[in-house]
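ARCHIVE CARD
Drawer: 12
Card no.: 0347
Subject: one protein chain, sequence and derived structure
Cross-reference: see card 0346
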Amino acid sequence: MILDLFAGPGGWSHSLSVLGARDIGLEWDEWACKTRAAAGQLTIRTDVARYPTWPWVGKTQGLIASPPCQAWSMAGKRLGLVDQPLVHQAVADLAAGRDTRAKLLAACRDERSLLAAEPMRYLHALNTVGEPEWIAMEEVPDVLPLWRQYAAVLRAWGFSVWCGILNAADYGVPQMRRRAILLASRVRTAQPPAPTHTQVAEPESLFGPGRARWVSMAQALGWGATDRPVPTVCAGGGPGGGPEPFPSGSRKTLSDARDRGTWTPRPDRLALRPRSEGPGQTAGHSTPQNRGASRAASACTGDAHRWAWSLRSNNQANATVRRADEPAGTLFFGHRANECTWVAEPVTAEPQGASSSVVPDPIRITAREAGILQSFPPDYPWAGNKGQQFSQIGNAVPPLLAARLLAPHLQVPLNPDDFTLAA
């Protein structure tokens, strides 16, 4: 068996299914378990910290672990860093067969911190029979010192181990997501997979194949087929100023508009005309009834602002903003302030004497879009309400990155076409 601790909504599991394998996931979150069930993944709903290790002894080929990152993440209070000495102590004790978790947990500032030590409890039990054959673990970058402690223990047990920081964008994921990775094996040299993508495309040479350019959000979402597809919108909502794709304040999304045919991504960056008077509107007066008509009457010309869509990671002043022709910033959710929105950014300055332009309203990212930017299939069956879905997506391992890590252990080739993103 392949045992998947803290299995979440199935990032590792989906990658295994593409590679022709299956895991058994341990997961406590109700909605993540429902997502896994809808995706056809084997799951035991349980608390990893309370589940016994004996059922897996003598039966486990590989162990996967992605402990919850909330205690360590930049998006939270990061009390895991305060608790780090206690977590290191727990790992050392569990590696020696001593279970001091109850005492150490009582001293932790965040009870989730100690979950990062749980994989060692399973590994110690499995090591008594020479298992598992291989290990893959993932966490936020601040957990790397803990992975190095794991690595020292595993080497003493006869494993080849590599640990370090990898960026998901370097492996074809349309997202700049840096993660601390640990890979270990009893039967082969543990090493990270060779990057397949880079910021600037590299041609093939005598020294080997080149690397493709990072996958952009626009490319992943199917917003264009040019080298630098930059989705844009004009005042009327489409080329030439047709009906507005969604009224001001609407909760519709870019995908909704595109699917309805009322919004068209254009690589040539359509211009957005300044607000003009429309039927039933006099200068200086704007009402909800005539505002839409005014926008619809606006024509796209080269004499005004030009706008390109970007993704803003949260509502804070220092939020990460990435253009649609770039990979997304790290996606994280779980709090209203962390909502991701599409925002329009000016491409050119407003000409002298022009009136204020009609700036497209920010548009919330959908769960489908967020899942694609994590390299999940467009039709992945996310369960729960919007908040529950976003929480699962933000905590998940990108399946394409997971597949890159697991393929050498399974000794199977990886076909990137199996991870087609846009529908």
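Annotation on reverse: The first helix runs from residue 11 to 18. Residues 102 and 372 are 40 Å apart (CA to CA).
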